[in-house]
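User: I want to check something. If I give you two sequences, will you return the structure for each one separately, not as a complex?

Assistant: Yes, each is folded on its own. Here is the first sequence with its structure:
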Amino acid sequence: MRNELLDDVYSSEDLSLRLPKSGFPAVEREPQHVFAAVRDELMLDGNSRQNLATFCQTWVDDEIRDLMALSIDKNMIDKDEYPQTAEIEARCVAMIADLWNSPDPVGTLGCSTVGSSEAAMLGGLALKWQWRKKRLAAGKPADQPNLICGPVQICWHKFARYFDVELREIPLEGDRLIMNAEEVLKRVDENTIGVVPTMGVTFTCQFEPVKAVNEALDKLQAETGLDIPIHVDGASGGFLAPFCAPDIAWDFRLPRVKSINASGHKFGLAPLGVGWVVWREKTDLPEDLIFNVNYLGGNMPTFALNFSRPGGQVIAQYYNFIRLGREGYAKVQNACYATAGYLAREIAAMGPFEVLFDGDKTAGIPALCWKLKETNGIGGYTLYDLADRLRSRGWQVPAYSMPANREDLVIQRILVRHGVSLDLGSLLLDDMRRAIDFFAKHPVVKPLTKEEASGFNHN
């Protein structure tokens, strides 16, 4: 027994055999041994800081880690038992409503969610319920709702399928890779529950033109009487434009914008996973969607899809709001934009690449994307080969083909999040140059295909 206590963890009996991988284990094991084994498996995930594919926050400070630990055992949905966590969530909603220029930041409604997809679905449900109420009050059928969005925002595909709404997605066409007002007007009718522009589309990271869509819908209402609301998928831009491009009118300054969702765990700088949805005014959220629940002795309203969940992400979000304020968020996000611009200039100067989006803060999020000027680069490589070569150095820089109607266009993309410094970016550039030199000296006989290359999810 004494020898077992003194054994090094990797010479222990627990780790002398493969640990169970499928069947439920029969015996208990020492916690430090199991911890070491699980920690070692996690090394195979790679370094999240080098993951330039994800929109999600991969760097947090020590104070946030401590606050997350303090909140790990708190079920934030139980507002009766954890009233201060509930109060902090309400403060965050009011602060975000103020950030997005709600006419009544304190009196309007909003909530935190597990992620922005849940927040988007709550916004979509409110649009559907409001539309249905108006249709039934007018004695008209309400069985064929449709929703209009830009190209390939996956959460809206989910919303449409789960909640029985026809999705009228605007396809890509030529050099137009996002929604525009003209394409919206081609698709609206009396069954349109709303239009959803995105502030930072998945593929090219550009802002869709919320103001232009708003003005087109104003004109449509004046001409036809159709009053179609807007829900803005704030995605990443909801926590960027207010600080770095405040003159862009995309939020509640436009009266037709009735609700906005955004990801706190993306450019909101909170840890995974928290999203937010806020309505312009209290009356924009139908009362039918609000449940009054008697839970553990307390009567509380709730309008989330999820119920039990930890409160740490909301607490961390509040910490960031108080810690950084408008000044700090602007410094952090502008530093990301500066790095994105630097990377775009350097990648363009390498020669083989044409930059399609360069991280312009007035046009999109701090990101960049590019294509090969020719079908293949020197040495016969494709962007899939380049992505694979960079992965050998730990970098995840996705290469992917665009969706329907532009599947011929293959691009690579970098997201510059908090923690991706200019110096870290310069190391990536060095590896890109080395990769290009390698392909020149060792031509690719059989380039990787889309199917063979590592896949990336674009959420």
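And separately, the second sequence with its own structure:
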Amino acid sequence: MVFTFQVTKNDDASAARLGRLSTSHGVFDTPIFMPVGTQATVKAVTPEMLTEMGAGIILSNTYHLYLRPGADLVERAGGLHKFMNWPRGILTDSGGFQIFSLQGLRKISDEGVVFNSHIDGSRHFLSPQIVMEIEQKLGADIAMCFDECAPYPCSYEEADQAVTRTSLWAKRCRDSHNCSDQALFGIIQGNIFADLREKSAREITALDFPGYAIGGLSVGEPKEDMYRILDLTHQLLPTDKPRYLMGVGAPEDLVEGVARGVDMFDCVLPTRIARHGTAFTHRGKLVVRNAVYAADFRALDTDCDCRVCKNYSRAYIRHLVKAEEILAHTLITYHNLYFLIKMMQDIRQAIAEDRFNEFYTNFYASYKF
């Protein structure tokens, strides 16, 4: 199998660690942030831009690609990499979170999920076996098991049922997955209940997947609950397998996740807030659409060396936002993704040089919420 993972260094003062993950589309170092390209595109930027900013792996979504343009068409194109002209790593989510977000439009059973498309209302059925077939046709380097993500808040009984079904589906996914150059990751559920997280981790790790994701967090729970569950979960997962925290991308959450042993992150946050005129900076979020920046000719982030910060001012970008020009989305998105990718590079360097604790302290000294 072409997928391998090796821990190359552990931090002495925290659970942070360095790793190296190898796929058939390249090798990348962890911890790493994965830009989200839900529909085979990271919104507002090109694959060439992603390469330029140093992205090693991106995420696409099985649910959306299944509905449009369809897995068969992507397979005919030569797989997702060729279809979207992206030469590096791709991870495909199973679409479970999106399906379970379709309140009133889906019905769940142990066999799978019947749901209505959010596009045209058409009726569909997805089972673990069908999802594996779709993900193998898409041809990503890493595929995720089909899981049930319990909402927040939910009852203990609801979360327990989701854990049981996630384990049942994980076994079916593993048994039906037969793509030798695609790694299949299991997903840990359990909401904010410690004993359910322990149960889920025990059952999923027993299936011996090459990697494990922590799902069902960053869905509305308080941050202290997310950090508490991460404190617990990283102790329950194998040390020699990658750990992926799903749907988390705020700078402070990346720092806290790394401190708790997480290797991989993804989130739509940097691209979504960009479309609303908000940029990440080393001093916190900057809402560039605000009137105070109308004549501000500084860069979005004066400590950033991305191509946007080298060439464009806050005043100009605010003008683009107010004029509803598409270029505003591209410039802020590029900067936000660069910011997170560069931040992860800085974190890796800090771990390598035994100064992650210093990085952690300095981050909170300058980043304002």
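Because they were folded independently, the notes below concern the second chain alone. DSSP finds 15 helices and 16 strands in the chain. The radius of gyration is 20 Å.
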